[in-house]
Structure formats: structure tokens, C-alpha cells
Input
Amino acid sequence: MKSSLPIIVRSTEIDVNGHVNNAKYLEYFEWGREEWYELCGLPYEAFASMNIQTVTVNINVNYRSECRQGDQLTVTCQPERIGNSSYVLRQEIKDERGEVRADALVTSVTMDQSTRKSRAVPDELRKFFKSQE
Output
């Protein structure tokens, strides 16, 4: 399953170089992941009811070209691969012409809320990775 979230670059997201600050891309990617979880029917509350949290442990970002104020962007997110307690989501930020401005591989781990230790990815999340296993 692939999610798609449209956003518009705002003036507060621009740095002294006149383009989106590199740290802001991480926020865009986070918004895209939240959209994906919602689309999958796995909002924060669903994980909490399973006594699970998802924790981002690695983000590998490629900044392809700059984004500027007023740009209409789309943040996509889709499953890439899965392990026992970790999984990777592939994300892209594209402009209105479909050109990739940035892409990322985001690794997360499922963690038990009580013990604060990693635990197996629940079937409720794992099922979205079936074609990647």
C-alpha cells in the first residue's frame, strides 16, 4: 500500500539560502509516514492498544533538488522490507511535475511500551509488507 500526501511549502519552512531547510524534509517525511499509518488503519492509538511504539532508528535521505516557497509537493510512503522487529519504509517527495526532490529509506523498530525493548512486528503491520518478504 502506498500513501500520498500533498503539501505546499510555506514561508516559515525556508532557510537563509531561500529554499527548504534540510531538517524540514525530515518533518515532511514524518507527515508522510503518519499518513501511511492512518491509511493502513494503524494510528498511534492502535499501536498503543497493542502495547507497542514504533521508533525511528535510521533515516537515509537523498536531497535531489531544492524546494522553494509555494512549491506544491507530494510526499509518498510505501513498504520496502521487513525483519523480525524492524521494517523499512521508502519515501519520496515529488514536485507537481512528478520529479523527485528528495527520497529516503526510513528504518523503524517496534518496541514494547512497558519493557522499552524491541519486539516482533505485529501481524497488523506485517501484512502490509507481504509482497516484500
